[in-house]
Amino acid sequence: MKVPTHQYRCALGRLQPQAADLDAIKQNGWQEQRILVVAENDDRLDFIEREFVRRLGERLYSATARGVRHD
Questions:
Q1: How far is CA 64 from the centre of its chain?
Q2: How far is CA 70 from CA 54, 55, 56, 57, 58, in A?
Q3: pLDDT tens track for 1-36
Q4: How far apart are the first and last CA of the chain?
């Protein structure tokens, strides 16, 4: 007689986070709040677009743009 073995389910299993679809989150952020999240090295961008993203990031978020200088 074969007795089915039950898989042990850990009580903490329900607390593990689910993997998120990052592209869906980015798309939703753009559609609802007009927030753009793009990596400088995104393969979907051509050279000019990557350079534009890099320069924009440097202008907005670099240490010198915030008034902080590291000499």
A1: 25
A2: 20, 19, 20, 18, 15
A3: 677 776 767 777 778 788 889 999 999 999 999 999
A4: 78
As a whole number of angstroms, the distance between CA 45 and CA 39 comes to 9
Q: What share of the chain is helix, strand, coil (3-state, %, to 5)?
A: 40, 0, 60
Q: Which residues of 53-63 are buried (b: 16+ CB within 10 A; e: fewer)?
A: beeeeeeeeee
| Residue for token pair 């607390």 | 15
Q: How far, in Å, CA of 38 to CA of 5, rounded?
A: 48
Task: Determine if the pTM surpasses 0.90.
Answer: no
Query: Could you tell me which residue, 47 or 71, shows the higher pLDDT?
Result: 47
